[in-house]
Amino acid sequence: PVLLRLAEQLLAHYRRGVRPVRDWRTTTTVALDVMVYAILSVDEKNQVVTTYIWYRQHWTDEFLRWDPAHFDNVTQISLPAESVWVPDILINEFVDVGRSPEIPYVYVQHHGEVRNLKPIQVMTACSLDIYSFPFDVQNCSLTFTSWLHNIHDINLSLWRPPELVKADKSVFMNQGEWELLHVLSRIQEFSVKGSDNYAEIKFYIVIRRRPLFYAVSLLLPSIFLMLLDIVGFYLPPNSGERVSFKITLLLGYSVFLIIVTDTLPATAIGTPLIGVYFVVCMALLVLSLMETTLIVRLVHQQDLQPHVPTWVRRWLLERAAALLCVRHRSELRPGRARSGSAGKGGALASVSSAQHTVPPPPAFAPAARPSPHSSEEASERETPAEAGGSAWARALLREVAAVRELLQRREELHAAAHEWLQVGYVLDVLLFRAYLVAMAAYSATLGALWAAWRCA
After folding, report:
1. pLDDT digits over 324-337, tens only?
2. CATH number of 214-325+440-455
3. 328: enclosing H helix or E strand
4. Residue 66 in contact with residue 9, Cβ under 8 Å?
């Protein structure tokens, strides 16, 4: 009965449509407070953040006062929110009506202080910077202001000191993707095109993404594929398996990019740095495949290929080999004269051995000693035999010369192929180390950028 009598007395002549002051020149001060409960979702594509907050406000209503001694020492009462005056304070960043629970009551103290406590699901627009994804830190603001009343009618203040608001994480659910760093607050005035001044309070909710999931599912597979590409350089340059190995890696990385496309945040104004990282890794794989194709082409110089040009031998087999410490320069510089003389010597040795091992023809077989009476018949018989033997020797020498020429040609082709193999080997080492330097510089740059953004 006491609460009913008190409510009837307070609301009997109350007019909720008028600001509750006895002197219209009196400013109604509304104190606000925000406590972040959870970060529900962050939509990078639409630039929308859904936050669940505990919102508190209180103000003084000069027409809702009573003496507790007359009402059994009752110092506060709950009244329907639609029966009392409530300030028209909105959030400027609202983009949609949130599914907030309806709280139908407000608390009223005996000295006229009205407290309105309610949870709100806030869907607000926020300028999200995803360039440093997944190590990004977002700063989204909630701007509370009176939509109609200027600063002379309604002024705003903080319920708690800014230091307490900043460090308060007591109700935040810390199990999701986002981590709450702090909540900053600022009170300021603004005017629109020279109109009246309005008061506003900005709460800056600073959140940071937990990168462990994305590092495991995005960065580590890419790093492993790039390490496999580096290991592929240790296959022999004259092996055809290196090309197929590189092509398999390139196809695998393409499939990996197709899978992670839906995971990466997408906006119309920018691309995350990790997307650039993936594109550059794909470009490095393509360059690695092109380098492998070039080396395989060099080391498979076969028929009718000239010797390595002099300038290529000087720059690659001498200077580049010495600079890269591949091996001693004398081992990478087979001389043509030495190989040619060796080929000629081998051919001559073959010819001499062939001449010593050829059996004598039947015409020169040892015969019986002629008698003095048959010298004329013997001379007549030896003349056609000697002629046949010389013809057989000339044919044999022609065959030996042909074999010698074939051996010389084979030695020249072998020497040219060996020189091109050495050029391909040195060039492969040179390009491989340049590839390592490029990847190390690129990885160091990305790591420094992500570390700087994370610390900032």
Report:
1. 666 544 444 444 43
2. 1.20.58.390
3. none
4. yes
